Amino acid sequence: MSFQAEKALVRAHYDALAKATPDTVVEVLAERTVPDWHWRGMHPFHEQRGAEAVAAVFWSPFLTSMMHVQRRQDIFIAGRNEIDGFKSVWVISMGHLMGLFDAPFLGIPASRKITMLRYAEFNRVENGVIVETALFCDLIHLMHQAGLRPLPPQTGQHLVQPGPATHDGLLYEDAEGGDDTLALINRMIGDINAAGKLTPQDELAQCWHNDMIWWGPDGIGATYTIERYIEQHQRPFRTQLSDRKFNGHVCRLAEGNFGGFFGWPNLTLTSTGGYMGLPASGKSADMRVVDMYRRDGDKLAENWIFIDILHFLNMQGLDVLARMKSFH
């Protein structure tokens, strides 16, 4: 099964975006999307319809703030979506949008320095056009690069998160092995949903290499090895959040050794205190999440995570962007 046409379309879309300006980006976006294009973005962008709305909330402001933007991709894959019975075809891109941060963005002060906005984007392609997109990006890391500290110290370590250790995530040509990767991801999801029957170490050892890397979002951070992952992410997540409800995914696919999913939202939880160094809210809040994976043999080796933390906190009454603007 070939996804060359869909990959070529998205690559042409990205090539055109690389030449776009704040004034031309509406036309660029409209060229390869349907008029009622369904676009999902993180807080404060949320859901939009059509190129004009998407340009207004994200691309025009972003290109006004960032000069000489380069898309530096680490993963590029395509496949059929398991969630709708393998009917729709999606193309996934993950990496960084790099530029010179020369004017404020969302109230985040400009640094005039090289800046990398970490992103993952899912594009559904149908009849030669993009009909649906989800763009996740790490705005808290952008604040970090501008010299701000919007949240308490994190349990992990946030860096400019690199791509696959194997440097083979750009599948411009179609690749075999996606079925094995998808099956492993699904087994791992099953282990999470059955949590409590095994120790955390034994649960994770079923599907993860011991030297696994969890490239988490800023606010939580990255962590390395099963033991440190438990200490620095899993235990705080499972003990400081309650009433966990799994809402499912919108898209889940794999190609070659890489796969991933996103939900809208994936999870609904209540903060019981301590999570990300913040007090209990007592309020139910949604987590919109992207997970991207690299399989190495019969186990998972790397996992890149994007969480709409600003939305999760906003639902609990903490508007990080508004608070930040009040100080700058």
**Would you tell me which CATH topology of the largest domain applies?**
Nuclear Transport Factor 2, Chain: A
Proportion of beta-strand residues: 25-35%
Q: How many structurally independent domains?
A: 2
Rg, rounded, reads 19 Å
Q: Helix segment count?
A: 9
- Find the structural class using helix and strand composition: alpha+beta
Structure commentary:
By secondary structure, the chain is of the alpha+beta class. The chain folds into two domains: 142 residues, Roll (Nuclear Transport Factor 2, Chain: A), CATH 3.10.450; 150 residues, Nuclear Transport Factor 2, Chain: A (Roll), CATH 3.10.450. The chain is built from nine helices and 15 strands. The strands form three sheets. A six-stranded mixed beta sheet has the order 2-1-6-5-4-3. A six-stranded mixed beta sheet has the order 8-7-15-14-11-10, with helices on one face. Strand 1 and strand 2 form a beta hairpin. Helix 2 packs across helix 3. The radius of gyration is 19 Å and the shape is globular. The N and C termini lie far apart (52 Å). The relative contact order is 0.14. The mean pLDDT is 96.
Based on the model shown, name its key terms.
about 325 residues; alpha+beta; Nuclear Transport Factor 2, Chain: A; 2 domains; 6-stranded mixed sheet; 9 helices; 15 strands
How would you briefly describe this protein structure?
With 328 residues, the protein is α+β, with helices and mostly antiparallel strands. The chain has nine helices and 15 strands. β3 (66-80) and β4 (89-101) form a beta hairpin.
